[in-house]
Design goal:
Belongs to the IspD/TarI cytidylyltransferase family. IspD subfamily. Pathway: Isoprenoid biosynthesis; isopentenyl diphosphate biosynthesis via DXP pathway; isopentenyl diphosphate from 1-deoxy-D-xylulose 5-phosphate: step 2/6. It is an enzyme of class 2 (transferase). There is one protein chain. This protein is of the alpha/beta class. The protein has one domain: Spore Coat Polysaccharide Biosynthesis Protein SpsA, Chain A, CATH 3.90.550. It has 7 helices and 12 strands. The strands form 3 sheets. Strands 1, 4, 5, 6, 7, 10, 11 and 12 form an 8-stranded mixed β-sheet that branches. Strand 4, helix 2 and strand 5 form a beta-alpha-beta unit. The radius of gyration is 19 Å and the shape is globular. The structure holds cytidine-5'-triphosphate and the ligand C[C@](O)(CO)[C@H](O)COP(=O)(O)O. The site of ligand LQXTBERG has 8 residues, from loops.
Length: about 250
């Protein structure tokens, strides 16, 4: 609840989500760009947009479309309208995920309290996970990441040419490792600075990785198994199964 003694805000505070959806999905195999492939008859991107809009805190969504296809993406999203309270913007993306997110951040409105970055390729993240990330940023953490413990043991290797067996050089202690998901949530100024500062190709494969390079603390909240990333063909089978179960049990559309 707002403090009645504090001056009225000129700009309403709101949370925004940037959804990078400009990837091709090479690991999924040839065909339509990954975010536009359907799950249960609905494009993966539409599921991802709905997952962000399901949070009552989210009032702005920026979708980052394949560079050659923002008009097609706009048409597709117009065919699957959201509740009136959510504003949806589509911008063209870039050649890498980092570039696409940077282009999405440039389209954010002023007055944002939290910015989420969420992969279109994680279409089934539950709203409780989204809200947990937002709550942790609102509680003062500049960077918040949903994460899960690993099921597999991980080996560090000395990379070799394809086809040559890779020598193992170490086994990191699994109990200290986490697999990170999205949406990742940030204080907007922190994330903008990270994207302005960290040069492409310096090895960060997620947005929190860029923020870490500024020396800003990143904290984890529990992720969710259904927030998995659709990366390879078997992931599509799993996503269809999760969707079918949701439709049968809780009326998910
Ligand atoms: N140039 C790029 C590359 C990726 N992404 C987005 O980043 C998210 C995570 O990337 P990933 O799952 O790796 O998607 P792709 O890059 O499409 O997959 P692949 O590496 O198999 O081609 C996806 O929602 C993807 O659309 C993006 O917006 N712009
Ligand atoms: C951001 C991310 O989903 C966190 O796990 C992941 O790093 C994206 O990696 P990708 O190689 O672009 O799939």
């Amino acid at each position: 609840m707002s403090d009645p003694s504090s001056p009225a805000r000129t700009t309403p505070v709101c949370t925004a989500a940037v959804i990078p959806a400009a990837g091709r999905g090479v690991r999924l195999g040839p065909g339509t760009p990954k975010a536009l492939r359907t799950l249960g008859g609905t494009p993966m991107l539409v599921h991802a947009v709905r997952a962000m809009a399901a949070s009552r805190a989210v009032s702005h969504i920026v979708v980052v479309a394949p560079p050659d296809g923002p008009e097609e993406v706009r048409r597709l999203l117009d065919a699957h309208p959201l509740a009136d309270r959510t504003e949806l913007v589509v911008v063209p993306g870039g050649a890498t995920r980092q570039e696409s997110v940077r282009l999405g951040l440039a389209a954010l409105p002023d007055g944002i309290d939290v910015v989420l970055v969420h992969d279109a390729a994680r279409p089934l993240v539950p709203v409780d996970t989204v809200d947990a990330v937002i709550a942790a940023v609102r509680a003062g953490a500049p960077a918040v990441v949903p994460a899960l413990p690993l099921a597999d043991t991980v080996k560090q290797v000395e990379p070799q040419p394809q086809g040559t067996p890779e020598p193992v050089v170490g086994t990191p202690e699994r109990a200290l490792l986490r697999a990170v998901q999205t949406p990742q949530g940030f204080d907007p100024a922190t994330l903008l600075k990270a994207h302005d500062t960290v040069v492409e190709g310096e090895g960060a494969t997620d947005d929190a990785g860029l923020v870490e390079r500024l020396g800003v603390p990143v904290v984890l909240v529990p992720g969710h198994e259904e927030a998995f990333k659709v990366t390879r063909p078997l992931d599509l089978v799993l996503a269809e199964a999760v969707l079918a179960r949701r439709r049968a049990t809780d009326g998910y559309v």
